[in-house]
Structures are given as C-alpha cells and as structure tokens.
Design goal:
5-stranded mixed beta sheet; elongated; 6-stranded mixed beta sheet
C-alpha cells in the first residue's frame, strides 16, 4: 500500500508540473521591451495581450508570437495610444489562477507526506510486512503454513537420533489414527519439547513428524510473537491457534521457545510485560477451558533451564525429547544422508570420517560434506575424495589456513617449540587424547595448532584425564621457557593459561575433584548480562582454601609438564626441526620423533621444492581419471594460542 501511495504522489506532481508549464508562452520568442516598441512603430505588430501589470504577449503580422516584459514604472496609457495609432489590437487577461484541484493538492501535500511516513513505520514495526497483510494487522499470526503436500521430509532424512525418533513415533500414529488411543481413554501429549545442543536436528525432526503423518505444519519462531506493543504477542498466539483449529489435525512448531517462554519475574528490573502476556496466552491456549483436539505443539530449545515451570507441567510440554549429539554410529548415518547429494569417490569411508569427528553435531557434519565438495570444486574434480574430506575436517576443527601471513624466522621457531611442547606433554600424559596433528601454519586466530583426537566418544572425564589436559596446556609455555629463558617467554600461551585455569577451577568448585571434597562452591547465575559464577554464599576463609586448591592443581600440572620436557629435550628439538621443515606433521611422524628417529617425509615431499612433481602429476591424473569415469558413464581437543 505504501508503494501505491508513493506512486500516486509522483504522478500528481508530474501532472501539476505539466499543467503549470502548458501555457501560451510555450512557443513564444522572448524579446526586449525596446525592440517591441520599435516593431510597433514599424507597423510589424498585429495584436498584443496584457497579462497583469508587466507581461505582454503578442503576435506579429507574419503570425510569429513573442513575449516581453514592461519595465517597472512604464506608463501603459502612453503605450496604449501608440498601439492604437498603429492599428494594433489590444487585449487584456487576468493573471492565471491555480485551479481548485491544484490548491487542494498543495494544501494536502504535507498531510499526505506525514501519512506515508506513518504507514511506512507501521509496516516496519510489524516486521516488514507479510504479503497481503495490511499495516494494521499487528495481531495476526506470522506462522508459516506448510500443507501436507509441501513437506517431503520423512524419518529417512533424519539420522543419528534413533531414540528421539522412537519417542515421537507415537505422535505420528496418533495423527494418523487418533481413534486408536481415544477408544481406550488415552490422551496424546499436547506439547512436545525438543531439547538439545544447537545443530542436532530438532527442527528437522519436527518437520519429519509432519511429513510422516501427512498433516499441515505451522512453523514460527519464538521471537515472532514479541513486539513493542503490549498485547500484540498474545493476539498472535490466539490467531495462530484459531488457524490451527481450522486445519486440525495439525502440528504447530515453535522454534527457540525460550525467547518467549522464559521464567516470569526473574532477571534485572523484573519481567517484560509483553513477553509475559504472550507466555500467559500460550499457556491458556495449550491447556485452558477450550479444547484444542488434534493440535500438537512441538517446541525446540537449547536452554530448557530458563523455561517457565508452568510450560513444563503435565498438560502442556510434559513430554521432553532429548536430541543429543550423535555418537560414532549416528555420525556415520548422518554422513551417509548428506553424501547422497554429493558425488563421492570410492576411497571415501564414512565410518573413518565419523571416527575422526567426535563431538560433531548434524549441522557440523553437513558443513563438513559441503566444505569437502567446495575443496573438490576448486581443483575441478568431478568427485569428492578422502583428501578433500581431510582438508575440510582440518579447516572446521583447526580453522582456515592463513598461508599469506608473513612470520619472521624467530617467531616461526618459537611457535614450533611452543607446539612441540604441547604435543610431547600430551603424548606422554596418561589417559590423554592422542595427538592427531601439529602445525605451525597460522589457522584462524592461532599462530599454530596442536590437535588431539579422542579414540572414542567420551561422556565423562576422569581426574587423571583433566590433570593431563592441564599439563599439556602448559607444555607450550614451558617449552619456550626451557629454550629461551624466563625473560623471553611470549604472550602466545594466554589462551592455554585461560583453559588450564578454568579446568582447575571447575575441578575444585564444581566437580569435587580436589581435597576440598565433593561440594559445589560456585553456582552459575543467569542474568541479562550473561552467565556468571558466584561465590557469594561462602566465607572468606573457604574462598582462600579454594584458591589454594586451584593453585595446587595448576602447580602440580606445571611441575609435571616441566619434568617431561626436560627429560625429552632431544625430542623437543627434533620436533621443532620437523615443524620448521614441513610446517605440519601427523601422528606417524610424531611416533618417529618420540622413538628418537628423524621423522619420515610427508608423502610427495621434495627436499628442495616441497611437494614433488610426481605428486602434482598424480593429482592431475586423478582429476583426469575422475573426468574419464564421469564422461564414460561409469572435537578439536587441541589448543590454539
């Protein structure tokens, strides 16, 4: 509507300008007044027309038109005598007055401008417009309706969350045949809350439920309810359920429900009236006096701890489905789902990739497959090989390489010693994750990276494991200190110190892994400023004991790491040399170094030129083979400083 209003305003302005300029002066010559008098005396003027006090239009005897302006103070009576004596026809015309429509338009123009600005801001406040919705439709629901024919997602497209799929299978059966449960007096849960870390597939699973049941699917975000006007969110909730009743049986999916479902009356400055009214209306619609049979509300969040207790009581979101991070088998199934859309080479084994990606969510694995496809496209390959998947995994886990960054030889050597210190201590500490790769190529914000790769998924961590992690975190700083002295230690260990200190603090104050005993001394306080730890409920004496216990853990780990590096100083120098030469070494080369041997050369490495021509030719041959086949029809557990 705003666009139409602006269009009509432009048309009106153009027409006004045309009418104002469409007058008898359009084709007249402009001459001086003295020239006009001279032509009158020479009998060249046929007729004149006086407009107002000074403007004179006329026509010569050769039918040419002209225009002139009489100077101020000229006596027109004398001019009239001259005109009459030379047989010139004299006419008089009143000055042109603007039409009534022009006057109305000029008077109303400021009002139209104000109205247009008002309409524009009204549309902006309601979220930028919603198709055919008018600017006053604040209370209308913004839920997007997908019919049963528009949803092609099924449980076959969801992998790695088998337990969650079993929990929601009952919802599908109820939507298909509600009488099966109602005959025995059973009631299907009206609300299902999907809880899990970001990227685990909560939204995908909700869409798969609708796809399996073949019912309409309403999708909306929790933030779509909240507006600057109190009561708008509640009105949208009512409108959404009214629309859902007309489509029942159906599914309403509310993503990120914590945006509107936070606990009432908490936080700095009290609650938000608009958000709380929206939440109250949602509670009433889900389990109030009105019966909403056939409507199942599915919500998703990764912050169930902040939700209002009234949302989680029986009759509302009383069934919680945990969509957790996939295990190794789940990651393999997810990779197979995403690899269906990518031409994958025969040397790619999803099981091997799954073993090397612990802690990856479904979204991370989808990104991994996409990055691998992009790497293959850059070198014009027709299929994605294992090499591209390895590069993609390193990029996601360690960050993108910054080969263009120029480092001095001294900085490069210090970084090599630093990363070698991490790797050696991590290699020799008991229960520590194996060292996967060490590089001094800058990645992300780090100048070098030492990456550890667990042999299996971990669900809990032992005290010995945590001590080993703290010791390996200090390995880089200790290596610099042993080689260059205390005065030359760099700031590269800042992130290591932060990680080690946090682990030690958690061991003492939260996990009960210290002489202080199994007592929680710190609590996470949630506020609008974020999550903060607090010790406000403990005494000063206990706080001093906690600080001492944290310091003891750190000192013990520091001493252990120092002892290891002093005993393996030769391996430290050998690994530094290898990093300076190859820039990146893997587990096999680290094994050679720890055995006291010079590490083997990377595959395809030339001592003078780096990668050999044979390696490059092999790559080109692989590309050619891939092209021929197609044409014939045939967690980072590492530490970044």
């Amino acid at each position: 509507m705003a666009k139409n209003l602006i269009l009509w305003l432009i048309i009106a302005v153009v027409l006004l300008a045309v009418f104002q300029n469409f007058d008898m002066s359009a084709s007249a010559d402009n001459i001086s007044y003295s020239r006009f008098v001279q032509q009158v005396e020479q009998d060249q003027i046929k007729s004149v027309t006086f407009v107002g006090d000074s403007t004179i239009y006329g026509e010569r005897r050769d039918n040419a038109r002209f225009e002139t302006q009489a100077p101020a103070g000229v006596d027109t009576s004398e001019l009239n005598d001259v005109l009459m004596s030379h047989n010139v026809e004299v006419f008089a015309q009143k000055p042109e007055q603007p039409s009534i429509w022009t006057q109305l338009f000029v008077a109303a123009f400021p009002i139209l401008i104000i109205l247009g600005v008002f309409m524009f801001f009204m549309r902006q406040m309601q979220g930028g417009g919603g198709g055919s919705k008018g600017p006053m439709s604040f209370g209308k629901s913004k839920a997007r309706l997908l019919s049963e024919d528009q949803i092609n997602t099924t449980f076959k497209d969801v992998a790695g969350v088998e337990e969650a799929k079993e929990d929601v299978q009952e919802l599908v059966e109820f939507l298909r045949d509600p009488g099966k449960y109602q005959r025995l007096g059973g009631k299907i849960p009206r609300g299902v809350l999907m809880v899990g870390p970001p990227g685990t597939g909560k939204t995908l699973l909700a869409k798969a439920i609708a796809g399996e049941a073949k019912v309409p699917f309403f999708s909306i975000s929790g933030s779509d309810f909240v507006e600057m006007f109190v009561g708008v969110g509640a009105s949208r909730v009512r409108d959404m359920f009214d629309q859902a009743k007309k489509q029942a049986p159906c599914i309403i999916f509310i993503d990120e429900i914590d945006a509107v479902g936070r606990s009432r009356g908490v936080g700095i400055g009290g609650g938000n009236d608009e958000r709380e009214q929206t939440l109250n209306q949602l509670l009433v619609e889900m389990d109030g006096f009105e019966v909403n049979d056939g409507i199942i509300v599915i919500a998703a969040t990764n912050r169930p701890d902040v939700l209002d207790p009234a949302l989680l009581r029986p009759g509302r979101f009383d069934r919680q489905v945990v969509v957790s991070l996939p295990d190794i088998r789940g990651r393999e199934q997810i990779l197979k789902v995403h690899m269906r859309k990518v031409p994958v080479s025969d040397d790619v084994n999803p099981k091997v990739i799954a073993r090397g990606t612990p802690g990856f969510s479904g979204a991370d694995l989808a990104n991994l497959v996409n990055e691998a496809a992009l790497f293959a496209a850059r070198i014009n390959r027709r299929t994605v090989t294992q090499e591209e998947f390895d590069k993609a995994k390193d990029k996601i886990m360690m960050g993108a390489e910054r080969k263009s960054m120029v480092m001095s030889e001294k900085d490069k050597e210090m970084t090599a010693y630093h990363e070698a210190g991490h790797a050696i201590v991590g290699r020799l500490m008991p229960e520590h994750d194996p060292v996967y790769k060490v590089t001094i190529i800058p990645r992300g914000r780090a100048l070098g990276v030492t990456m550890y790769l667990p042999e299996e998924d971990k669900v809990s961590y032992s005290k010995q494991y945590l001590k080993g992690r703290i010791a390996s975190a200090y390995g880089g700083r200790i290596a610099e200190e042993l080689v260059y002295g205390e005065d030359q230690v760099s700031t590269g260990a800042s992130n290591d110190i932060m990680q080690a200190t946090n682990m030690a603090r958690n061991m003492v104050t939260k996990w009960g892994l210290s002489p202080m005993g199994p007592i929680q001394f710190e609590e996470e306080e949630q506020s609008y400023l974020g999550s903060q730890s607090s010790r406000s409920h403990i005494s000063d004496e206990t706080s001093q004991q906690l600080d001492k216990a944290i310091r003891d853990i750190v000192d013990e780990a520091y001493t252990t790491a120092t002892k290891i590096l002093k005993e393996h100083r030769a391996a430290l120098d050998l690994m530094k040399d290898a990093l300076m030469e190859y820039e990146t070494i893997d587990a096999a080369q680290i094994d050679d170094i720890m055995a006291g041997q010079k590490p083997r050369k990377p595959k395809g490495w030339d001592d003078r030129n780096g990668p050999t021509q044979e390696a490059e030719s092999a790559t080109e041959k692989k590309v050619a083979d891939d092209t021929k086949d197609v044409s014939s029809g045939t967690q980072t557990d590492g530490t970044a400083e």
